[in-house]
Amino acid sequence: MAIQVSHLPHVSNTKVWRDRWDPMHSSIFSVEFTVPFVLRGEYDSEEMCVLSLQVLSVEGLDGLQKSVGIYTQKYLGTDVAFFNPKIDNTTIDFNITFNLNLRNVSDAYVYKIFKEWYNLMYDMATGVRAIKDMCCAETMNIYEANRDGTIWRQITFRNVFVTSIQGMNSLDYTSSDPRTLSVGLHADYWEEILA
């Protein structure tokens, strides 16, 4: 009788197999937005919910892991490594990519929200500049979950503002791909909670 590979000890003794552990998926997440207080009259909570549904991807979260770097000195022809006495920075820059859809035939609401937010810093059309308090959203939350929706990681970003908007650069008669918008964001600090 042939031995079944699936019953061999190296397979049957693994806790992942035996205890039915689920893998972590990078595609099970949600993003919860707020906007600066000067935009809250224009964009209500329903629009923030719709905006959350347009998120395609989030990049740059490795920037949450801050550490001191190292430097080296030469000693008798050899390198000796030391830890830097300080962290290079304590902020984070990350990107979120959105689907772009027109609401009510002609309302490019995703692009409009971020363009108005970005223009708070310096509006080229009017020359108006705002102070930081007017440009920052208080919070932005990212939730990662398992397949049944149980949240295992929550990241709450504080003092969030827009640093770039990309995706509106070119028009192309040969393309049938829908547009996406990449928004660069900056946060002064954050809290990461693991279940």
Quick structural overview:
The protein has 195 residues and is α+β, with helices and mostly antiparallel strands. It is built from 5 helices and 8 strands.
Account of the 3D structure:
This protein has helices at residues 9-12, 15-18, 45-53, 109-119, 132-135; strands at residues 29-32, 55-59, 70-75, 78-83, 92-99, 137-145, 151-166, 180-194. The protein is an alpha+beta fold and 195 residues long. The strands form 2 sheets. The chain has a 6-stranded antiparallel β-sheet with strand order 1-6-7-8-5-2. It has a two-stranded antiparallel ribbon with strand order 3-4. The chain contains 5 helices and 8 strands. The termini are far apart. The mean pLDDT is 90. The protein has a domain at 22-47 and 90-195: Pnp Oxidase, Chain A. A hairpin with a 5-residue loop joins strand 6 and strand 7. Helix content is 16%, strand content 35%.
